[in-house]
Structure formats: C-alpha cells, structure tokens
Amino acid sequence: MKAGNYVIVKSVDGKIIALDIKTGQEKWVYDRAVPALTLRGNSAPVIYGTTVISGLDNGKVVGLSVETGQVIWNVTIAISSGRTEIERMIDIDADPIIDGENLFVVAYQGRIANIHIPSGQLVWTRDFSAYRGIEVDSQKLYISDTDGYVWALDKKSGATIWKQDKLVRRALTRPVLYKDTVVVGDFNGFVHWLDREDGHLKGRFRQGGYDSEVESEQDFIFTKSDGILTPPLVFKDNVFVFNRHGNISSLVIRAN
Predict the structure, then answer these.
(1) Exposed / middle / buried, residue 12 (Cβ in 10 Å: 0-12, 13-18, 19+)
(2) How confident is the model over 109-129, as pLDDT tens digits?
C-alpha cells in the first residue's frame, strides 16, 4: 500500500513496516506480540490522509503516523474470552473499509464497529463474527458472517435491515455489489445473487455446471469442492469469478 513516500506492508507475523518507495530502506516498524493461535490470513492496512490503519490479531485496530509509525489511536474491537485458544481467537482478518471519515471493521468472534477516523472514537458496535470483508453503499453495509448468513446493516446505527439465512455453512466470500444485487460465492462453486433492497435470492449459477453423476444441487453439496475463495470481481457490466481449480468465468445479468 503506497502512502506518501513510503510503501506500507504487513507481514504474516503481524508487523507493519514502512519502506522508502525509492530505496526500499526500512523506515519504521510497528511490532506487537500476536496470540498463540490465529486465523490463517491477514487484513491489509488502509490509508487515511497521513494515517495508516490496520486491524490486528488481538482484536484491536491501530492508527499509525505514516511518517514515524507512532501510534495515533488504538481501539479495541473484540475482547478475548473462553477456556481454549480457539475460543479466544479474535482476529481482524477482514480488510477495514473507509467511507468518508468512518472506518468499518469486523473481528472474528467479536464485534463489527464504526470508528470515526480523525478522533479514533467508536461510533457504534454490535456483536458479530466474520473474517471476510465488508461492502458498503450510500446507506448500508453488506457482510457475510462466520455461519454463512448475509446481512445488510444500517451504516449510521448498525441496525439490521435484512438477513439472508438460505446460505448457511457455505463458507461465503465477501459480498460485492453489482447493479441492484449483492453477489457472493461459496465453497462449492456457486455464485448467489441477492436483491440489494430485501436480500431475497434472485438467482444462482454454478461455475462449471453440475456433475453428471449428481441429480440435484442438494446432492452436490457433499461432493468434491470447486470452492470460490476470493470475492467475485465486478468490472463494468461483468462479474468475474475465480475458483480454487483455476477456472475463471465472466457473468452478466441480462434484462428480461
């Protein structure tokens, strides 16, 4: 991530590092201890003016000076609890998203929160668990939770606008917006199209079609996965989908 004269990177062990964009020389390092057990993956830092913002594996979000790496503010999103290391995992693996002066961030087994970036103050929070990213439009946040529910939340308050419960246990991708729909991929190669206003299922497509030995989608759920691990990519009028076997599809909604 470029920020002024620096490239900001986050390493797999949780360090945030600023490198000189011309020489590659290390300018500063932000390093904090990480929990003994964390989710696989890391959220990417984001830049707001002269502030580097990153979610951490300990459930905190930190704002750092681009020039010096000094901590500007530090906000706790989730608090570790439970008897086992698994129960105490509170990683922020979903990339934070900036919307004006607000930062939306979510923790695994923790909370989703709205942070006012200039002050580092919490605007609102609610209990939530997710490790995928967040999508946003002028009024709503869209997010897939750990259990496979897709939610639309009010940006100003965090209140639920709708909840889609027909896709549970499908290991959904981050939602993306396409025209008047919300699009998510799942672990079995399906792409689901939800109405943006009320969340109802408008359509479904399986990359590669059905296996000839399987009679229905319900049967196919338990066969070898062709999982979509990365969010669909929207470019102009097309949605591009890439699955774990390297297949790429270009999809488009046709007018009736």
Answers:
(1) exposed
(2) 999 999 999 999 999 999 999
CB 6 within 8 A of CB 19: yes
* Structure tokens, 18: 């600023």
**Which pLDDT value is given to residue 244?**
84
**Percent of all residues in the chain with a pLDDT value above 70, rounded to a whole number:** 91
Please name the residues in contact with 184: beta carbons below 8 A apart, sequence gap of 6 or more. Answer: 144, 150, 167, 172, 173, 174, 175, 176, 191, 192, 194, 231, 232
Here the contacts of 48-53 (C-beta below 8 Å, separation 24 or greater) are 48/98, 48/103, 48/117, 50/3, 50/4, 51/117, 52/1, 52/3, 52/8, 52/16, 52/18, 53/96, 53/98, 53/103, 53/117
DSSP state of 79: -
Which amino acid appears at position 121 of this protein?
Answer: Q
The residue ranking higher by pLDDT, 168 or 36, is 168
Name every residue whose Cβ is closer than 8 Å to that of residue 193 and which is 6 or more positions away in sequence: 178, 181, 182, 183, 201, 202, 203, 204, 205, 253
Kindly report the backbone phi and psi dihedral angles of residue 220, in degrees, each rounded to the nearest multiple of 5, phi listed first: -70, -25
Tell me, what DSSP letter sits at residue 45? P
Residue 71 CA to residue 98 CA, distance in Å, equals 19
Question: Can you tell me the distance from the alpha carbon of 210 to that of 220, in angstroms, rounded to the nearest whole number?
Answer: 8
Residue 239 has pLDDT above 50, yes or no: yes
